[in-house]
Amino acid sequence: MAKIHILDEHIANQIAAGEVVERPASVVKELVENAIDAGSTKIEVTVEEGGLQSIRVTDNGSGIDPNDCTAAFYRHATSKIEHSRDLFHITTLGFRGEALPSIAAVAKVELVTSSGDEGLGHRVVIEGGKLIADETIAAPRGTDLIIRELFYNTPARLKYMKTIQTELGHISDFMYRMALSHPQIAFSLRHNSNSLLQTVGNGDLLQVIAAVYGTQAAKAMLPIQAENLDFQLHGYISRPEWTRSNRNGISTMVNGRYIRNFGVNQAIQRAYHTLLPINRFPLAVFDLRMHPSLVDVNVHPAKLEVRFSKEQELYPFVEQSIYQVLRQEVLIPQPVKQSIGGKGSSSFIQEQFHFSKNKNGNPLPEGSLPLLPSDTQANESAEMNVGSGTSSKTASVVDASAPPREYNQDSNVPSSIHGTSRSIHRLNLNLITRCGRREQRDMLCPRKRIEIFVQGSL
Fold first, then answer.
1. GO CC terms on record (predicted)?
2. By the 8 A CB rule, do 356 and 368 touch?
3. Most exposed: 25, 124, 176, 196, by fewest CB within 10 Å?
4. Dihedral through CA 195, CA 196, CA 201, CA 207, nearest 10?
5. Is the same domain home to 62 and 157?
6. Distance between CA 451 and CA 443 in Å, rounded?
7. Would you say 283 and 334 are in contact if contact means Cβ atoms under 8 Å apart?
8. Does one domain contain both 223 and 86?
9. What are the φ and ψ backbone dihedral angles of 173, each rounded to 5 degrees?
């Protein structure tokens, strides 16, 4: 008796779904890639409960012809390739024809699509691989796919799903990569009526970086653009001072497809050699363009791993391109002498602080007030008429470079002298408090001569 038999198509689809549909993020990935291949300019993704309850992807692409709606759910049914030689010239994101039948085998799928502008569309409902409805309805141009109760008929898979936050994190991470890969498409992601991502779709990659990583990260990015006979590279890399704790900030695209390649990541890190702290990684978003025959994407159903036919030339090209951009930047700040005054002025701000000392060279005791020295003793005696008791409106010119004088309070110096000096000191402190930062530096500069106008009786 024969022991080998052909599996039922439904069982085969469930087995294939284990490779294609690992988690809700895999469903979002396959549907969004189909929407991009359809020429969409606006893609909306709505998920509920981390994608386990429902996933909805709506686009304004070319749609599906009514005659192809049911055929799209057959295994290995695709419109991307026709011949074996097309595998060496893949220009689309999807080509295997396994996504829709694998999803329909483990979920409840509702498809509404229209390929024309006359408002006539088609609706197909499939539950667990069985066709439930196939009818004509009114629908706008584009495709609307709703996936409900993922893994409802495979409880073993559903049992090992992670938490809602974890599954949502995988979905949002993939949507961020898609938005960075295609800045010309307007993406939106909503979870339980909360907006998580919204891009404009005007083709500005820097705006997408700001929407994903924040405006501060976008300000720290440097544009990069290079090319040779085989490759083209364009995108943005971060300055060395803007780093992350892991490699998740590195987004590498090949012909618009997000990939993970260890060799490219190592080339990026070598370009930043000695510029990054230990265990810190840069933020990089760039797209590598090359002929489709130079890259093989038919490695894994997830299509995240690729093989390059000229990787020995690609890795040095990426490293040198990034290194050339970094070496053009001033990475270590230099001291700058900031001038003040007019064009012909020789005054400048000196970044120094000089603390007052007594005549022995020791700092003043705590609690004592340093006295501002005058330019000459004659000026002080002539301009500060202390003993007259009359109101004086004269100006005292103070040279901050002269050593301070100290008054002995036990001597016969009149107390009005001490009060006058302390009044001048308090006035000086008030001026420093009221002045801006530049004026404050001028007051503290030892070469700056300051005029303090004292009004009223001292």
1. mismatch repair complex
2. no
3. 196
4. 130
5. yes
6. 10
7. no
8. no
9. -65, -45
Q: Which residues of 25-46 are buried (b: 16+ CB within 10 A; e: fewer)?
A: bbbbbbbbbbbbbbebebbbbb
Residue 106 identity: V
Averaged pLDDT in 10-residue chunks for the chain of 458 residues: 74 68 91 92 94 94 89 84 78 82 90 89 91 91 93 84 91 95 95 92 93 92 93 94 91 92 93 90 94 86 84 94 89 60 64 49 49 44 41 40 46 45 47 46 44 41
Is the Cβ–Cβ distance between 201 and 186 less than 8 Å?
yes
Q: How far apart (Å, rounded) are the C-alpha atoms in residues 215 and 223? A: 15
For residues 409 and 421, the answer to whether their CB atoms sit within 8 Å is no
Domain count, the chain: 3
Structure tokens at 44: 């909306």
Cα distance between residue 339 and residue 438, in whole Å: 10
CA 352, 355, 359: angle at the middle one, nearest 5? 135
Q: Do the beta carbons of residue 338 and residue 429 sit within 8 Å?
A: no
Q: Mark whether 370 and 388 lie in a shared domain.
A: yes
- How far, in Å, CA of 1 to CA of 184, rounded? 60
In-domain check, residue 149: yes
Identify the domain containing residue 304 by its residue range.
210-327
Strand, coil or helix: 300: coil
Instruction: Please state whether beta strands 395-399 and 449-453 pair in parallel, antiparallel, or not at all (unpaired).
Output: antiparallel
With 0-12 / 13-18 / 19 or more C-beta atoms within 10 angstroms meaning exposed / middle / buried, residue 418 is: middle
One domain, residues 362 and 447: yes
Contacts of 12 (CB under 8 A, 6+ apart): 75
E strand or H helix at 126, and its extent? strand 120-127
| Structure confidence by residue, pLDDT tens digits, 222-263 | 999 999 999 999 999 999 989 999 999 999 999 999 999 999
In a shared domain, residues 99 and 230 = no
Question: Of 203, 222, 255, which residue is a domain's last?
Answer: 203
Which residues make Cβ contacts (< 8 Å) with residue 179, sequence separation at least 6? 185, 187, 197, 199, 208, 211, 212
User: Are residues 256 and 183 located together in one domain of the fold?
Assistant: no
> Domain check: are 198 and 219 in the same one?
no
CB 200 within 8 A of CB 207: yes
